[in-house]
Amino acid sequence: MTVDEIKKFFIENEALKIVLSDKIVGDYNKISLRPVLVQNKLLFQLERATKTQVFHENLPYLDAINKLEIENFKQILFEMPKKTYVFSIAKNGYRKKIKANNLTMVSAEHNKTKKYLLNEGDDVPIMQELGIFTKENKIVASMYDKFKQINRFVEIIDDEFKASNLKEITILNFGAGKSYLTFLIYHYFVNIKKIKATIIGYDIKKDVVENCNRLAQKYGYVGLKFIVSDVSKDKLFEGKIDMVVSLHACDTATDYALNFAIKNKAKYIFSVPCCQHEINLSIKKGGDYDILLTDGLIKERFSALSTDSIRAEILRACGYSVDVIEFVDFSHSPKNIMLRCKLTKQQKNLENIKNLMKKYNFSQKLYDLITKK
Ligand SMILES: C[S@@+](CC[C@H](N)C(=O)[O-])C[C@H]1O[C@@H](n2cnc3c(N)ncnc32)[C@H](O)[C@@H]1O
Question: Which domains occur in the chain, in start order?
């Protein structure tokens, strides 16, 4: 294919993501394009990366396509809701190959479309109202990453509950936000699994909580409610809890979720942490890994990974079996670690974490909360 033919293909199809890599010539090492909503208008964010800098521009689709500089790259990835194409340079232009994507994978053996819990085309009206699906139940391009996240989250929950004959469940969601996930979890337990579910979503933002309650009422989700709370200090649910979930609950809000789950002996925890600043701000050089604390970027990532390792260790010390798993592909969220935990009652102690904290002089909220008398 020629560059013009590729451009034509791009214009005729709806892109969820385009990535140009493996540079031949030019200033940029990588160029990518993805849909973004800017003041309720669908635009496409062109990201151009040199060796040292990244430039962003939000443009209408055609303008963005025209700025792609296709001819400067050997490899082009074009992701659509159901298919992904890879164009790679060959002798007489580019070769186009189709690559199955994770969302709707075609099985080579059976030539059948793999079903996921929430599929494009499913009639789940709340998903339209939340802006995940269009009126025709197609995925809204700019919500594709969120669609992937909530779908994957509930699939991971489903792995645990597939064979369960549970009749009733109580779940708390910390930092529920607009609650795409909370609504899908409710839909999963009540409509798919036919389990009576009581679900509470906590968020500090009043307007967001009010809107979620309005939607829960409108769609008859009787067991679902949202409460305005600061999870770091407000009194929360006092009954028996089966599961605590959190998806990108900001910074230490994740620690409050984990602490609450531990203290209330929630059997299941599914937690995808968000940004983490605490260790990065307090850690000092002091041992064998000082090299990881020299450069700001590495220090930040090391601190974030340390935070999740410490959380996992604390959960284990409190009787949980913990799997630290990749939640979604990095391209759908850079915050893609999930702590998948189940209360199993083996005990451990926190000595190793205490020693580490002393050696490197950092503090960690979950440790403080768990050890607080
Ligand atoms: C990045 S958003 C994630 C929202 C949602 N879970 C999702 O994945 O779409 C984080 C949410 O945590 C909420 N949050 C942060 N700190 C909180 C606190 N201390 N108490 C309650 N909510 C909090 C914010 O208001 C925000 O809605």
Answer: 3-99 (no CATH), 125-371 (3.40.50.150)
Residue of 143, 145, 248, 365 to mutate, ligand 1, most atoms within 8 A of C-beta = 248
Q: Candidates 171, 250, 332: which one to mutate for ligand 1, based on the most atoms within 8 Å of Cβ?
A: 250
Residue ranges in the chain whose pLDDT is less than 50: 102-114
- Encoded tokens for 157: 């929950």
pLDDT of 114-155, one tens digit each?
466 888 889 899 999 999 999 999 889 889 999 999 999 999
CA atoms within 13 A on the CB side of 96: 13
CA-nearest of 252, 250, 247 to 176 is 247
**Regarding beta strands 196-203 and 168-174, do their DSSP bridges make them parallel or antiparallel, or are they unpaired?**
parallel
Measuring from each residue's beta carbon to the nearest atom of ligand 1, which residues come in under 6 Å? 175-178, 180-181, 202-205, 229-232, 247-250, 253, 274
**pLDDT tens digits, 282-304:** 999 988 889 999 999 999 999 99
pTM score:
0.73
CA dist 260 and 161 (Å) reads 22
Whole-number pLDDT of residue 39: 67
358 by Cβ neighbours in 10 Å (0-12 / 13-18 / 19+) ranks as: exposed
Cα angle at 50 between 5 and 60, to 5 degrees? Answer: 50
